[in-house]
Amino acid sequence: MADSAHSHTAGAHAPGGSRRDFLVIAGNALLGVGAACTVWPLITSMNPARDVLAAGAPVDVDLSSLQPGQQVLVLWRSRPIFIVHRTPAELTKLQSPSDTGQLRDPNSEALQQPPYATNWHRSIKPEYLVLVGICTHLGCIPEFTPQPGGSLGPAWPGGYFCPCHGSRYDLSGRVFSGVPAPYNLPVPPHHFLNDTTVRIGENPPNSTFDFDSIEQI
Ligand code: FES
Q1: Whose CA is nearest to atom 4 of ligand 1?
Q2: CB–CB of 180/173 below 8 Å?
Q3: Residue with CA closest to ligand 1 atom 3
Q4: Residue 45 falls in which region: left (phi positive, over 0), alpha (psi -120 to 50) or beta
Q5: Integer distance in angstroms from the first to the last C-alpha of the chain?
Q6: Is 37 near ligand 1, meaning CB less than 6 Å away?
Q7: Which atom of ligand 1 is found nearest the CA of 142?
Q8: The pLDDT value given to residue 19
């Protein structure tokens, strides 16, 4: 039985703006996302504790009010899950050599996502990205930084910046070359119940993907 996501009214990230605010759908849990070097415990052994499993029920999220360019944050298995509604311009950039040429694993060859998200957009629907928001270096929570350029330099295409040690990911969660993080951000099991409702924590009916088989959370 899935939990229903709750209201989401605060802090929409304005496309092109500079604020790192988030819509938050997480029951009554509000995460301090964006705080410098917020560390999330890394899971190196895929034997989750009983209480983690107990917290692992699927979560349904209504994305109908999530505008292009915005991100929403939810919790699943006590972990932050980023859901982004990408704009057409952002989707175009994800396929450009100016983006892919900066990446360590542009084709998602490492097992950091289900087979149904092993594609250039790392998702089921190109416009909706779903990621586990935990840096694959040492477990900080990366900052949603969708604006190109700015303080991250002219080559910055928009994506996620981890302030702890400077790791960078694009807007598909693909890690840059030459940064400490070794892997792309994980994509959790998910599927769509209708056009704008996504269920986090459950595969599509035709998939048996085991999230515990991924390289690194
Ligand atoms: S934890 Fe993200 S760069 Fe080190």
Answers
A1: 165
A2: no
A3: 165
A4: beta
A5: 25
A6: no
A7: 2
A8: 33
Q: Please tell me if the CB atom of residue 181 comes closer than 6 angstroms to any atom of ligand 1.
A: yes
Cβ atoms within 10 Å of 49's Cβ, excluding its own: 9
Query: The whole model's pTM is what?
Result: 0.79
Q: Is 168 in the pocket of ligand 1 (CB under 6 A)?
A: no
Ligand 1 centroid, distance to 137 Cα (angstroms): 5
What gap in Å lies between CA 30 and CA 109, rounded to an integer?
33
Residue type for position 25: I
Q: What is the band of 51 on the pLDDT scale with cuts at 50, 70, 90? A: low
Q: Which long-range contacts (CB under 8 A, 24 or more apart) does 156-159 make?
A: 157/93, 157/96, 157/98, 157/99, 157/102, 158/90, 158/93
In the chain the domains, ranked by start, together with CATH numbers, are 1-217 (2.102.10.10)
Whole-number Å distance between alpha carbons of 122 and 125: 9
Give the least confident one: 12-16, 141-145, 168-172, 203-207: 12-16
* Local structure of residue 94 (DSSP, 8 states): H
Question: What is the spatial distance between Cα 46 and Cα 149, in angstroms, rounded to a whole number?
Answer: 37
Q: Label residue 216 by pLDDT band (50, 70, 90).
A: confident
Q: What is the pLDDT of residues 97-131, one digit of tens each?
A: 999 999 999 999 999 999 999 999 999 999 999 99
Q: How far apart are CA 94 and CA 7, in angstroms?
A: 31
